[in-house]
Amino acid sequence: MAVKKQQTDTSASTCCYCGVGCGVLVHKDKSGQILVEGDKKHPVNSGMLCSKGLNLHYTVNDTSDRLLYPQMRYNKSMPMQRVSWDEALDRTVAVFKTFIDKYGPDSVAFYASGQCLTEEYYVINKLMKGFIGSNNIDTNSRLCMSSAVAAYKMALGEDSMPLCYNDIELADCFYVTGANPAWCHPVLWRRVEAHKAANPEIKIIVVDPRVTDTCSIADLHLQLNPGTDVTLNHAIGRVLIENGDIDLEFVTNYSEGFEQYSALVFEKSVAESAKICGVSEHNIRVAAKYIAEAKGFISMWTMGLNQSSIGVNKNLSLINLNLITGHIGKPGSGPMSLTGQPNAMGGREVGGLANLLPAHRDLGNPLHREEVQKFWGGKLINPKAGLTATEMFEALNDGRLKAIWILCTNPLTSLPNVRLAEEALRKAKFVVVQEISNKPETLDYADVILPAAGWAEKEGTMTNSERRISYLNKIIEAPGEALPDAEIICRFARKMGYKGFDFTGPSEIFDEHVKLTAKTNMDMSGLSYTILKEQGTVQWPYKKRGPAQGTQRLFIDKQFYTDSKKAIIQSVPDTLTSEFPDSNFPFILTTGRIRDQWHTMSKTGKVNKLNQHYQQSFLEIHPIDAAELKIVEGDIAVIRSRRGEVRVKAIISPQIKRGVVFLPMHWGKILGSDLNRVNNLTSDQVDPISKEPDFKYCAVNVIKYKKP
Ligand code: SF4
């Protein structure tokens, strides 16, 4: 509180954790220390913050772990040496040029983050796709929302969440699946809780193999077997059709594919589907009844659907429930994907994935490539999709990729089958790590370390899950010689000899990005920093002379972004392709977040209060399974998969299904050891379309640890 009393300055900003995008007020005292509180005027959170947002200032005020100056070494056996920015970037330029000349542009790659600001994403994407001549730019959003991105495109024609958070208060049925928003998108869930408290008649259906805090206000919990989401959604679709509870007008006039879908969902009886899913037929029918009776129906989901070897099919089967009931393009209705990271959406806007171009243009479309190339004035854009997150590390392992530049992410905790990623960085010829913290494991493998400015130390924009763009103020100076990420990339690009990177600041980068959106479906051509500073957050599309707050809802006119202008009801199979349990590895492992930690804990792990919720990683296991293994609460369990091992304390809980175990995703070497890193175990199988990994399903063995 001391900071607030002595405050000299207050700025508005946005929380840098999840994709809810809560508004914060940042009070700064004379010494540069900050205090964060919820912004009562913000349309997303009305002053509310969750535990992570409330403690944001501790992660900024404590600079003890910050990287302060560039460092470099000429071989991995040497210690890192402090160098100037010019020395670090000149060396990086020399190495990149050598590899590009000798092996071609696909020999280098950038691996970035959904925590980068939009302007940062924009310049990295422009540099790689427009000037280096490779599409090897991918981000950790690949591990997060890429299945939803692909599904939106296949069903609606573009990656566009159609509704807004204000629809929550207008809905009377929520189908929450593959998500625990009570812990992972808490402020948004507080809005659902408040709506339910005021209107007890509204229905909440939660679909999850675990009983989570989200279930505490559920009218119906479908505790399905992991991986059976498509079967369940199809069964609900079948009941809706059987009972005549579909929107015939919408299906006939505004969608395609219903007949094929109808035939598909009738291939299995509801009883058969119930058996596969491990839920009762009665409860499937109750879920369908709740949806059928709703005037406003919102489906809500995140990683439980996305992070799967059939993630796109899971997404499509869910979106179908909105389409067949006509619950899209009207207040209180629609598919609402919950973005994991604060600016994964902004990154997608500028085309910051290996298979995208800016403003939702298609890399595979020659006209789109030409349009962007002419705008940038660089090289012809390579039509071949770049390497995705896991593919980059495979390519380092087999030598196709020589150099990787990693920024704002910690793949050595977060990638699946992480030992392969470690091996990849060991083999890489050249590794650049651009980071704020001296903790991530990637630094051990770096040839060049570039210190970056963090949240509140730089200016830019982010877009939350509901297409809401926020301006983030620079509030304090970055410590030491740390620079904003966009500035680092532009300096590098200029040293490479590329034109078009002499921006005077993020505002000019934003203006260029906005120009590229003109005449596209996400048209932001009416937007500028001035507008964002004057009137606060707005939602895209934001056309010139359009509504002052932008566009709350898409598809109100029932005109979708597909060629036919109709939504596409996709008929997807329900066959799971994950690594199944067997006699050697009899349990299904599923992974996820805990309430008070964020990703690999490089920020939240610094805050004592947040470390109290769970002080260490753990295995959640059902009491009957634990008893059979002679494991009691607090015992150390050894969990093994075909890829590696983890040893953590057991928590025995009836809230998980028998045969399924849960481990949190956060721990790695930053807080603890690599023996608590869940991604030693996970499978690197990916969805064939989205290339998103299967973090929610792999086969493991569990035994009680015995001292040797
Ligand atoms: Fe930040 Fe998300 Fe919590 Fe809001 S809900 S305070 S955006 S972490």
Automatic annotation (TrEMBL):
| Gene Ontology CC entries for this record | membrane
Quick one: a GO biological-process term for this protein?
Answer: cellular respiration
Provide the reaction this enzyme catalyses: 2 Fe(II)-[cytochrome] + nitrate + 2 H(+) = 2 Fe(III)-[cytochrome] + nitrite + H2O
Q: Which residues form the 4Fe-4S Mo/W bis-MGD-type domain?
A: 8-64
- Look up and give the organism this protein is from: Mucilaginibacter ginsenosidivorans
- Functional summary from the UniProt entry: Catalytic subunit of the periplasmic nitrate reductase complex NapAB. Receives electrons from NapB and catalyzes the reduction of nitrate to nitrite.
Named from the GO MF annotations, one term is: metal ion binding
Member of which family? Belongs to the prokaryotic molybdopterin-containing oxidoreductase family. NasA/NapA/NarB subfamily.
What's its top-level EC category? Answer: oxidoreductase
Q: Which cofactor does the UniProt annotation name?
A: FAD; [4Fe-4S] cluster; Mo-bis(molybdopterin guanine dinucleotide)
State the source organism's domain of life: Bacteria
Q: What is its EC number?
A: 1.9.6.1
Name this protein carries in UniProt: nitrate reductase (cytochrome)
Q: Which residues of the full protein are shown?
A: 1 to 708 of 1174
Glycosyltransferase as a keyword of this entry, yes or no, is: no
The record's keywords, sorted A to Z, are: 4Fe-4S, Electron transport, FAD, Flavoprotein, Iron, Iron-sulfur, Metal-binding, Molybdenum, Nitrate assimilation, Oxidoreductase, Periplasm, Signal, Transport
